[in-house]
Design goal:
Blueprint: E1 2-7, E2 10-13, E3 18-26, E4 33-39, E5 46-52, E6 58-60, E7 68-73, E8 78-83, E9 92-99, E10 113-114, E11 118-123
Parallel strand pairs: 2-11
Antiparallel strand pairs: 1-3, 3-8, 4-5, 4-9, 5-6, 7-8, 9-10, 9-11
Amino acid sequence: QVQLVESGGGLAQAGGSLRLSCVASGRTVSTDTMGWFRQAPGKEREFVAAIRWSAYSTYYADSVKGRFTISKNNAKKTVYLQMNSLKPEQTAVYYCAAKGAKSGSWYGLTYDYWGQGTQVTVSS
């Protein structure tokens, strides 16, 4: 129904920056919100940021507010996550997700579609 492909992950030094991209395809008209989540080894998956296709509303986890920025290009069906001032503890697999308007909250794990994830490693 909906396919999500992340890219842009890699290795960065502490204090450096990375920009992740997520391209959505398929029946994207059924989605309302795009989100970014991350999961470090041995830890549960957590919410990072979200944005709506039909509005400019954005949402951030307190841990990344002021350092990460989520943005979008509706024509390209692409969502971005600009990550600045990276810290080693932010090393994780970052996942792109999409959900319909009625599929739970923007901050929960109740999204309908998930990408394969992209590894982000921050060295000290």
